[in-house]
Amino acid sequence: MLTPEQQALKPNNPKMTARDVNVFYGQKQAINKVSIDVDMENVTAFIGPSGCGKSTFLRTMNRMNDTVASARVEGEITLDGDNIYSSSMDVVQLRARVGMVFQKPNPFPKSIYENIAYGPRIHGLASAKADMDVIVEKSLRRAGLWEEVKDRLHDSGTALSGGQQQRLCIGRAIAVEPEVILMDEPCSALDPIATAKIEELIHELRGRYAIVIVTHNMQQAARVSQRTAFFHLGTLVEYGVTSDIFTNPRQERTKDYITGRYG
Amino acid sequence: MAEHTVKAFDEDIDKLRGLIAEMGGRAESALEDAMTALVREDKKLAAKVVAGDARIDELEAEVEKLAIQTIALRAPMANDLREVIAALKIVGVVERIGDYAKNIAKRVPLIAVNKRTLEPVSLLPSMAQIAGEMVHDALNAFSARDADLALAVVNRDTVVDDFYNSIFRTLVTFMVENPKTITECAHLLFIAKNIERIGDHATNVAEMVYYAATGQYLPDRERGETPELN
User: Fold this and answer.
1) Could you give the residue ranges of the DSSP H alpha helices within B41-146?
2) In chain B, whose CA is at the least distance from the CA of A254?
3) In this predicted model, what pLDDT tens digit does every residue of A67-116 receive, in sequence order?
4) B216: chain A residues, CB-CB within 8 Å
5) Are B4 and A260 a contacting pair at CB < 8 A?
6) Which of A46, A106, A189, A232 can bridge A54 by disulfide, Cβ–Cβ 3.0-4.6 Å?
7) What's the CA gap between B85 and B143, in Å, rounded?
């Protein structure tokens, strides 16, 4: 069930919806009855202390938790109205539509060009070299990396700086034309300049993709998102307009966390 | 309220609140002393009030500096942010209250001794006492984060306005009947206006305190009538 605040903010065109989602790791319940909608217009930030379940919940949104043997998901998560946990859902296709960027940049040990081209190739988005060149350039441009790497596309992706590697990973996610991009602490390994570039990129990608970002950095959540969800002990404590959450949170637990009074 | 994990943050906030309490206390005494000086023809006390305003101005600068530093270094959020911003705004207002008290004190030597028995003079101390209490309570409300006390201050503003209206009419009548008192009456009118403004400023402080404490704005209130505008 959506909370009253969520009802009030309910997007007209939710890209993804979650209803009463529970996640268990073996006997332990990591997520308890979480319901939330995300849309293309608003970047949604998940915040909360370590172990609150925000990353676990993010990973349910493209079935990343399938890779964890003991994980079990209950409830319903939809993408354009289709339940992503139904047996008819093609998980490979799902993960192309719902891309993910991780905490540590993880480019393939291949050239910059190949890092981008790999996904489109296996998904059959381009076969001719010329078509692939177009996809690579477009993806790198959208990832804000093109100008920095256009003269060395065949250098190894791992030779780039950390911030460039992370933008390469975002470009790689973009290359398969996703509809949703999930980011799990995408800047925690980056310096402030590289962080600012990613944040600017998130701002530019907003509207084209539904973006959900998990971050430990509350200033970052405040800077990049329009909606903020605060998780604590596996529950969604508060969800609201980002500027309200950071100036006037409704819940005592949210207030204590964002003002630095937690625990 | 629970403490911050970073204790130095609490120290900054406490220091900020301490400075504002001191500043408010000084503005309140300035008004009280200015009125005592007026009633007792005490030019020395009046001069002390005028000189004391410099310290109020200094405190404003100190609070501004500390508030900006706190925002830059601690990145306050939610109620902390509202409180620091309120502190910044409140000191600007309290500084104005100090100026009004100073202005009253400056007029003390200009009112001739034999005119000090003018009837309207007797009303001013009571009016000033209420305005002074409003300043006191507004700052106490800030100190205690007490939204109810802040609301009570806001609701008291009409009393000061009513006082002002009554004094305004009395002084105008008095001037018509005794044209020789016009100079003194004009000064008294300005003094009454200053006190009325102090009441308004105390109300503004109370509104900021209410917002800082609750995150909600007070609905627009009914204001007392301003006679010279009717």
Assistant:
1) 43-74, 78-107, 124-144
2) B78
3) 888 999 999 999 999 999 999 999 999 999 999 999 999 999 999 999 99
4) 248
5) yes
6) A46
7) 14
Residue-level pLDDT at A17: 96
Model pLDDT, residue B227: 55
> Which of A249, A262, A263 lies closest to B78 in CB terms?
A249
Chain A partners within 8 Å of B81 (Cβ):
246-247
How large is the average pLDDT for residues A5-19?
Answer: 89
Tokens of A15: 């890209």
State whether A219 and B75 contact (CB < 8 Å): yes
The number of helix segments (H) and strand segments (E) in chain B equals 6, 0
Task: Point out which residues pair with A257 in neighbouring strands.
Answer: none
Give the list of residues 6+ apart from residue B185 with CB closer than 8 angstroms, or none.
B118, B120, B171, B174, B175
For chain A, how big is the Rg over CA atoms in Å? 18
d(CA B135, CA B89): 15
Q: How would you list the strands of the sheet with A28-38, edge to edge? A: A28-38, A16-25, A71-79, A82-83
Asked if the Cβ–Cβ distance from A259 to B6 is below 8 Å, we say no
Given phi > 0 = left and psi -120 to 50 = alpha, else beta, which region is A232? Answer: beta
Is the pLDDT at A5 greater than 70? The verdict is yes
Bridge partners for A21 per DSSP: A34
pLDDT surpassing 80 at residue A197: yes
Residues above pLDDT 70, as percent of chain A: 100
Mutate to test the interface with B, among A255, A259, A262 (most CBs of B within 10 A): A259
Name the pTM for this structure.
0.84
* A192 close to B (CB below 8 A): no
* Residues near B65 by beta carbon (within 8 Å), at least 6 away in sequence: none
Contact B6 A260 (CB under 8 A): yes
